[in-house]
Every structure is written in structure tokens, then in C-alpha cells.
Amino acid sequence: MRTPRGYVIRQHVLDQAELKGYTVEQVVRVIDDPTIRYENRRYPGQFRHIRDGLVVCVDPTRQVAITLYADRIETPQRPDQTDRDARRHFNGK
User: Fold this and answer.
1) CA distance 37 to 18
2) CA separation for the pair 90, 44 (Å, rounded)
3) Does 4 score more than 80 pLDDT?
């Protein structure tokens, strides 16, 4: 699926949106018309697009939406998360 501005929306993004109760229209609006946009320091070249409490991480060079999550809400670590920082955060270290 593509947004009107040409971003490819990965299936992971659509799955997360459904799981978290966001509509495809909300996702597209965040990607194509964010109210806040800044570079993701952890992943150079990626940007976070934010609007109405929703964050979508995008790669503007490849024109792809990578993932999404609710802005400023901590969620429990998932079993598939192997990220060192996530492990440290949830283990209190």
C-alpha cells in the first residue's frame, strides 16, 4: 500500500495499527502530514512523524514507513524484542 505522497506502508505498520486501534487513514495522515517531524538519532536517515498521539517511523530516502507506536506511552517489552536498550529499560538496569 502507498500513501498519496508515495510512501510504501509495510505490512508490519498496518498490523500494528490494527492491533493498537488506529485506522489506515490515521496512519496515512501521520506519514504524509505530520505536525512534528524530527530525525531519529538512533537510526540515521530515519525520521519520526508525529500527529494526534501517533508516531510513524519513516525512511524518506526509500519512501517507506517502518513501524508505528503511540506517542509517549510505555508498553511492556515484547518477547521478540532483542534490543539492548529495551531490555535494559524493562529490567531496570
Assistant:
1) 23
2) 24
3) yes
CB neighbour list of residue 33: distance below 8 Å, 6 or more residues apart: 51
- 52: closest CA among 19, 75, 29, 78? 29
Residue 48: the pLDDT is 96
CA–CA distance, 78 with 92 (Å, rounded to integer): 16
Read out DSSP for 18-63?
HHHT--HHHHHHHHHS-SEEEE-SSSTT-EEEEETTEEEEEETTTT
Alpha carbon dihedral 32, 10, 46, 24, in 10-degree steps, equals: 30
Length of the chain: 93
